[in-house]
Every structure is written in structure tokens, then in C-alpha cells.
């Protein structure tokens, strides 16, 4: 199956080829084209590390430089304002004649001073919504999140729950949505993707960071389920890329697609029922989710 064209050599990138996607533009690149080493490939799966293509890296560097220049300008303006205020205070002090007049002048001067805003570091709350697959979230992740697990839920149930709980969440929160349900084959790829995008759209006015977890494997379900699953994940990735670019342009939030196939590549990772994951693999999925959370959970807010 062809995923897309390589952003470097423009040759097709097949599903079985070693390739990596740019975190910002979501374009795929052959590992050989970008000169990525094996150690870096493993780090992308298990460490707090992302891949950026040359064009996106250049754009990010320019954005960071602009932010630094704006910060320097604000510091310079603040210094000039403080110097002017000190000069005004010195002149006022010289004209004070009596203690009562001095107290009045001090009060008036204090009232004229603008209230300064300071930036406060805050950890955004995290909400995870899905079916029974999210029930066994590792303890080191569960301590930092609110988890809504609905046993036997269909994708329509997940969408309704997302729309309901988003109304109660804070702005700039983190939302993790399971990209499938227990009726994947019945619903089909097209309808499943439609339901997922509607669930994501429920958060677009809240400036959230949203992650959609790709539909996980289920060895028990057989070949048809696997075919529909792969087609669904491919289409979800394409549609989320469109939403991601729209949100970034209009500053509505951010979007990620968490593909877990690199972690679940063997049947032995599943329990006897062929559906639910064993303890060790749940731990690995938890670390992947924790990496995404750490990269986006800390934010700065104005504190008047």
C-alpha cells in the first residue's frame, strides 16, 4: 500500500518501506533520503523526540528567532518605562512639604502605576475517551489524566461522549480520542472517519491539543477487520492533516495522529482473547502517550 510521495526524492513511500513523517507538515520521507540512523528511528518511537523536515525546521527556527526579538523589544520597553517612573518619583519627592501631602502623593503615584502581568507555567488537564481498550491505562499515566472508558462502545458512542465532555473541559486542555470502536467492520472506513472528525471538530473552538489514536489491531477479528482497520487509519491520517493545517492557520489549537502499529507488531502482545493488550504492551503504549502529553501539556498563561 502506498502512503504518499517522499518529500525528498518524490518517489512513492510504500507501507512496508522504512519511512518517517514530519511532525509539522505530516509529509513522509524515506529514512535513507533524510540520512536517519537506526538509533534515531528507535528514539522517535520511545523518547521525547520528533522529526522535522528541512523546510519545517527552517520555518520553526525563524519563528523562534522572531519570538526572541519580540521578547527583547518588550524587555527594552519595560526598562524604559521603569526609568521614566523612577525619574517622576524623584521629582515628586523633592516637592513634598508636609507628611500629610507626602502620603497623598504616594497613594496617587501607586494608583497610577500600571499593573504588570506575569507569565505563569501551568500543566493543562488531560482527558482520554475510548472503549475498553483505554481501561487499563498504566498507573503512571492515569495519575495525570481523566479517563472515560466505555466497554463495548461503538465509534458513535465515542463521538457523543467527546461532544458531551468537551463542553465541561477548560480551554487549552489536552484531549485523546480513540479512533475506532467495536463496530469498525459494520460501520466501514468512510463512516468511522466521519465520526472521528466530527468528534475532533467539537474541540476546535477551545484551542485544545487533540490526539487521535489509530485503530488498534485485533488478531481475533481476522483478515477483513485488519483490511478495514488499515484503510481507516490511512483516511483518518489524511483528514486530520487537513484539520491540523486549518487549526494552525486560524490558531484554534493543534492536532496529532498517534499510530501505534510500530509498537503492536506481533500477536504475542495480545491477551488470550485476541483483543486486549497484555500488561507489558500497555506500559509501552502508556509511555508513548506520556511523551505526547509532556511535549504539549505545559503552557504559559497570563496572570494579571
Structure description:
Helix content is 49%, strand content 17%. It has 304 residues and is α/β, with parallel strands linked by helices. The chain has three domains: 2-52, Herpes Virus-1; 55-116; 121-303, Rossmann fold, CATH 3.40.50.1110. It has a five-stranded parallel beta sheet with strand order 7-6-8-9-10, with helices on both faces. Strand 1 and strand 2 (12-14) form a beta hairpin. Helix 6 (155-166) packs parallel to helix 7 (184-201). The mean pLDDT is 76.
Structure described in brief:
By secondary structure, this protein is α/β, with parallel strands linked by helices. The protein has helices at 31-34, 38-46, 54-94, 99-112, 139-142, 155-166, 184-201, 223-250, 279-297, and strands at residues 2-5, 12-14, 19-21, 28-30, 118-123, 126-131, 145-150, 174-178, 209-213, 254-258, 298-303.
Report the CATH C-level class of the largest domain.
Alpha Beta
**Helical percentage:** 40-55%
- The DSSP helix count reads 9
- State the CATH architecture of the largest domain: 3-Layer(aba) Sandwich
Radius of gyration (CA) equals 26 Å
Shape: globular
Q: Uncertain regions: pLDDT < 50 for 5+ in a row?
A: none
The name of the CATH topology of the largest domain is Rossmann fold
DSSP strand count: 11
Strand count, sense and barrel status of the largest sheet are: 5 strands, parallel
What keyword list fits this structure?
304 residues; five-stranded parallel sheet; alpha/beta; Rossmann fold; two-stranded antiparallel sheet; globular; Herpes Virus-1; 9 helices
Amino acid at each position: 500500500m502506498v502512503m504518499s510521495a517522499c518529500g525528498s526524492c518524490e518517489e512513492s513511500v510504500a507501507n512496508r518501506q522504512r519511512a518517517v513523517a514530519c511532525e509539522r507538515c505530516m509529509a513522509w520521507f524515506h529514512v535513507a533520503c533524510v540520512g536517519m540512523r537506526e538509533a534515531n528511528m528507535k528514539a522517535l518511537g520511545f523518547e521525547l523526540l520528533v522529526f522535522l523536515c528541512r523546510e519545517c525546521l527552517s520555518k520553526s527556527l525563524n519563528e523562534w528567532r522572531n519570538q526572541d526579538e519580540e521578547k527583547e523589544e518588550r524587555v527594552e520597553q519595560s526598562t524604559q518605562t521603569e526609568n521614566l517612573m523612577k525619574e517622576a518619583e524623584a521629582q515628586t519627592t523633592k516637592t513634598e512639604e508636609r507628611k500629610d501631602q507626602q502620603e497623598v502623593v504616594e497613594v496617587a503615584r501607586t494608583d497610577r502605576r500600571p499593573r504588570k502581568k506575569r507569565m505563569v507555567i501551568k500543566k493543562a488537564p488531560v482527558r482520554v475517551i475510548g472503549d475498553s481498550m483505554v481501561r487499563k491505562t498504566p498507573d503512571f499515566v492515569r495519575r495525570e489524566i481523566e479517563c472515560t472508558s466505555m466497554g463495548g462502545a461503538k465509534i458513535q458512542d465515542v463521538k457523543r461522549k467527546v461532544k458531551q465532555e468537551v463542553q465541561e473541559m477548560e480551554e487549552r486542555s489536552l484531549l485523546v480520542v480513540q479512533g475506532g470502536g467495536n463496530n469498525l467492520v459494520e460501520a466501514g472506513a468512510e463512516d468511522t472517519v466521519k465520526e472521528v472528525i466530527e468528534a475532533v471538530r467539537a474541540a476546535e473552538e477551545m484551542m485544545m491539543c487533540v490526539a487521535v489514536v489509530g485503530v488498534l489491531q485485533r488478531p481475533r477479528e481476522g483478515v477483513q477487520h485488519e483490511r478495514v482497520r488499515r484503510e481507516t487509519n490511512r483516511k483518518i491520517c489524511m483528514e486530520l492533516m487537513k484539520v491540523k493545517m486549518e487549526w494552525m492557520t486560524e490558531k484554534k489549537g493543534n492536532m496529532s495522529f498517534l499510530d501505534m502499529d510500530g509498537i503492536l507488531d506481533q500477536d504475542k502482545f495480545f491477551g488470550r482473547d485476541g483483543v486486549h493488550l497484555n500488561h507489558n504492551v500497555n506500559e509501552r503504549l502508556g509511555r508513548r502517550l506520556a511523551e505526547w502529553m509532556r511535549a504539549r501539556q505545559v503552557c504559559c498563561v497570563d496572570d494579571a
